[in-house]
Amino acid sequence: MSSSAHVSAVDQTGLLPPREPIQLLDDAGTLHEVDGYPLDLKDEDFQDLYRFMVLARRVDKQAIALQRQGQLGVYASLLGQEAAQVGSAYALADADWVFPSYREMGAALVRGVDPGRILHLYRGTWLSGHDPYQHNFALLSIPTGTQTLHAAGYAMAARLDGKDLVAVAYFGDGATSGGDPHEAMNFAAVYDAPCVFFVQNNQYAISVPLSRQTRAPSIAHRAIGYGMPGYRVDGNDVLATYAVMRQAVERARRGEGPSLIEAVTYRMEAHTTTDDPSRYRTPEEVAEWKARDPIARFKTFLAAEGLLGDEVRAQIDAEAADCARRMREEIADAPHGDPLELFEHVYVEPPPSFDEQRARLRAELQAADGQEDGR
Ligand SMILES: Cc1ncc(C[n+]2csc(CCOP(=O)(O)OP(=O)(O)O)c2C)c(N)n1
Q: What is the model's pLDDT at position 8?
């Protein structure tokens, strides 16, 4: 493995992030090792990281096309965030748990979740089509930041049960302004919960820029306020994201408590398919980030290492095309579920108001059916 300059990224307190985001692969795709963030990856792992990023990009493109064809109500693109998601999820063990936001298709792929199944949420056919317990990948959270509480709680419970697992919450820079992540991070720190808070700072919360989220020098700087380490990492560098996540996960696994990671990246697409980003960001800014494309950078590195021959590339491309085809088959014209199922899995002992609401919906549905029959 080639390696040029040797840089130290260790700060004085052990909790504050270094001034610059940790980067292992520079923008030109050259590897620079950093003390404290060793890479324990084999050739196959490097190829796998690339494979997952290519799949994520293809799946993302397909989901946008399905929305344009009227098959999905809405979709939240991960374009530009492939390295942040794939690198971080790749550092997890099978027993670990992911608590995602609505933008985590890349992390879902790494966990083995079928991307077509995920899209049922965006089609409105069901809350989600995957079994969270099969992949230790929770349902996507549409409310911003609520999943941080689920992750902290799950991690605390796992610790009490003596289970060897780490829970990871994925959330955005905008979500950090809400109360839930604060409560989750404080609780997790106080109780040494095996939890990692992974923020993808993609610079915007819809149209609101990062400068309106915090006066702190960075999101990672908030960690010291909770008494946990804060890491800042180049989120467009899949190797750095992996290496940093691995440190945080191992620390949690050793029983040393949670960490906060800020992956600095950029959302290249609109916030969702309903958004027009040209109203709040300049073409120059977008072009600047396009030049830092996470897949192109890693591809340059792999090619220089002789890890991306024609056969490997063709295999990955074929898998991506197949993945997109299966997604289309899964979601196109998929029938809607029974709306009354909304009331399942909510309460063990439903309060009377809940039963009343269920009865009201049942009556409305029957009335609507009657109208259709009468036509
Ligand atoms: C509790 C809550 N408040 C408001 C919203 C509306 N909303 C949807 S996405 C979003 C911005 C989130 O930005 P960020 O956390 O940075 O994540 P990103 O979408 O950039 O991945 C908001 C405010 C919501 N979904 N949930």
A: 44
Q: For the full predicted model, state whether its pTM sits above 0.85.
A: yes
pLDDT above 90 covers what percent of the chain? 90
> Can you tell me the distance from the alpha carbon of 339 to that of 355, in angstroms, rounded to the nearest whole number?
14
pLDDT at 342: 87
DSSP state of 271: S
Answer whether residue 375 shows pLDDT above 70.
no
Locus of tokens 């309060």? 351
Amino acid identity of residue 23, one-letter, is Q
30: Cβ contacts below 8 Å, ≥ 6 apart: 2, 4, 301
Ligand 1 test: best mutation among 74, 142, 144, most atoms within 8 Å of CB?
144
Q: What is the mean pLDDT of residues 304-322?
A: 97
pLDDT confidence of 3, banded at 50, 70, 90? Answer: very low
53-65 residues labelled b (16+ CB within 10 A) or e (exposed): bbbbbbbbebbbe
| C-beta atoms surrounding 127 within 10 Å | 15
SS (H, E, C) 155-168: HHHHHHCCCCCCEE
For residue 107, give the 3-state DSSP assignment.
helix
The CA-atom distances, in angstroms, between 156 and each of 151, 178, 268 are 9, 21, 35
336 close to 125: Cβ distance less than 8 angstroms = yes
What is the residue-wise DSSP string for 13-40?
Answer: SSSSPPSSPB-SB-TTS-B--EET----
Q: In this model, does residue 283 exceed pLDDT 80? A: yes
d(CA 11, CA 220): 13
Among the atoms of ligand 1, which is closest to the Cα of residue 200? 21
pLDDT of residue 168: 99
Mean pLDDT of 222-227: 96
Nearest CA to ligand 1 atom 11: 205
Residues 328 and 64 sit within 8 Å (Cβ to Cβ): no
For the question of residue 336 being annotated catalytic, the response is no
* Residue whose CA lies nearest to ligand 1 atom number 21: 172
